[in-house]
Amino acid sequence: MKVAVLDIKGKETGRKVELSDDVFAIEPNNHAVYLDVKQYLAHQRQGTHKSKERAEIAGSTRKIKKQKGTGTARAGSIKSPIFRGGGRIFGPRPRDYKQKLNKNVKRLARRSALTLKSKENAIVVVEDFNFEAPKTKEFKQILKSLGLENKKSLIVLGDSNNNVYLSSRNLQRSEVVTNSELSTYKILNANNLVLLEGSLEGIESNLIK
């Protein structure tokens, strides 16, 4: 599959690149995509939630009323969950939400996500660019030239580029990652995928094993 290469002004350079059918034109596996996205979202959870149970509540252990003759149910502790200020029954405890997923399943999920974006014509290939210093204004101008100013976009770099990353950091609808940081969730969460020329070789080598 051949795709035209654009410059930072959104115009065709006259060159085309070949996107591997093994990455951008496979039969999508929806279950692999589901598993990978579920794992990604689970790993975003801190797992630090905690509530006090009756053994952890500060309070007297005195029996609060006599056992019989009150006409109401028996009650032995003010820390009981049925009383206001008492402990919580089966409350949340700190836990680790990490899930295991095989590498081959994750690669299949990413290839499936890239294929889906390819079918939607939501992939743009742009020639490599750089900034002398972090400039959000210049980065926004590039997005505007590509018609992505008001859309969620994911820009994929070949190598880490601090100036480009810092230029995009304040923009809510745009995210910059390297080809090694590409995830199924980020691909699907973006309306458009902007691949720099230098990232294509890394993407294909990472996903074809």
TrEMBL record:
InterPro entries: Ribosomal_uL4, Ribosomal_uL4-like, Ribosomal_uL4_dom_sf
GO cellular component: ribonucleoprotein complex; ribosome
GO biological process, one term: translation
GO molecular function, one term: rRNA binding
Keyword vocabulary terms for this entry: Ribonucleoprotein, Ribosomal protein, RNA-binding, rRNA-binding
Region span, Disordered: 45-77
Function, as annotated: One of the primary rRNA binding proteins, this protein initially binds near the 5'-end of the 23S rRNA. It is important during the early stages of 50S assembly. It makes multiple contacts with different domains of the 23S rRNA in the assembled 50S subunit and ribosome.
HAMAP family: Ribosomal_uL4_B
Quaternary structure and interacting proteins, as annotated: Part of the 50S ribosomal subunit.
Entry similarity comment: Belongs to the universal ribosomal protein uL4 family.
PANTHER family linked to this entry: 50S RIBOSOMAL PROTEIN L4, LARGE RIBOSOMAL SUBUNIT PROTEIN UL4M
Name of the protein: Large ribosomal subunit protein uL4
